[in-house]
Each structure stands twice: as C-alpha cells, then as structure tokens.
Amino acid sequence: MPDLRIDPPFVANERDMLCSFLDWYRQTLAVKCEGLTDEQLKERAVPPSPLSLLGLVRHMADVERIWFRRVLGAEEAPPYYWGDTPDGDFHDLDSVSAQEAFANWQAEIEHARTVVAAFPSLDDLSAGTRHGQKVTLRWILIHMIEEYARHCGHADFLRERIDGVTGE
To answer: How would you write 101-118 as a 3-class SS string?
Structure first.
C-alpha cells in the first residue's frame, strides 16, 4: 500500500495540531482502502457483523456531515446513508457504488475544512446543537479524532483479513 500520509507536526499550536491529527486519521482510512476492489471493500468482518471497509467510509461520510454541516455550521443536511435504517451505512452494500461513497466522503472532508476555517477560535460554540446543546470547535475536533482512531483500528483488522496487508 502506498502511504502518502503527512505526519502531524511535533510542535504546533493546538488548532494546527488537532487539524493535523484529524487529517492524518482521514488519510489512514483512505490508505487502508487503497488498491482494493469494490468486492473487497464490501467484505464483512465476521458474520453476522455488517462491518466492512466500504461501510466505514460511508459511516465517516455521514459522521463528517453531521458534525461539521449540521452541528458546527447549522446547515440542513440529511445523512447520506443512515436514513430510515439504523446503521444503513453498513447495510445493503451489494448495489452500492464505492466510487460514489468515496466521493461523498471526500466532499464532506473538504466542506468540513471550510467550515472549520470560518471559526476563529477552538472555544467558539457551534452554530447548531447536538442533543440540544452547543459544543465547542475543540470538542468536535477531538471527538472526530477519536471517532476516526477507533474506526481505523477496525480498518486495520478488516484489511489484514482481506489480503494480509498490515500497517501503521
């Protein structure tokens, strides 16, 4: 697997450090999916679990959308995949386009960067709410790092099961 990730800096201000770690984890999920066929991306971890690499990409597209569009920016943005089906991002992958899922995910990442740039301080409160409460930009960035870190761990196991490839 080519690894083109940019390591977070050892010395930086808090905002740059948080954004760099978030980008590193975003890149990590992409690396774990690199070079696989659509069928391999759709392979399940361990039945009956619906977990798959493509499901993780779809899940993270919706997570990015929820936190940065809806909560931070207060935009009207329905989820791509969750819809009426709980965990819809992981289900019914047979007819799903991997290319479309990756495009949605990347579009949400780019939009998230734009929204984050519009908030001058990590202490700024979100324009929208989550469970009826506003949250700081700092909280959202930290939450997103932990969300990606957890799912990149899942992606490690999935990728190793698919073709034996392991990595950092």
So the answer is: HHHHHHHHHHHHHHHHHC
> What is the structure's pLDDT at 23?
97
Across 58-87, b (16+ Cβ under 10 Å) vs e yields: bbbbbbbbbbbbbbbbeeebebbbbeeeee
pLDDT along the chain (168 residues), means of 10: 84 97 97 95 89 97 97 95 82 90 98 97 97 97 98 95 85
CA nearest to 59, candidates 105, 26, 112:
105
Q: What is the CA radius of gyration of the chain?
A: 16
CA distances from 165 to 41, 116, 127, 141, 149 (A): 14, 34, 42, 29, 18
Residue 129 tokens read as 């709410």
Bridge partners (DSSP) listed for residue 130: 133
Handedness of CA 7, 12, 16, 17 (dihedral sign): positive
Q: CA angle 138-144-147, nearest 5°?
A: 145
What is the per-residue pLDDT for 2?
Answer: 64
Give the E-state strand segments of 27-112 in sequence order: none
What pLDDT sits at residue 92? 82
Rounded Cα–Cα distance for residues 104 and 110 (Å): 10
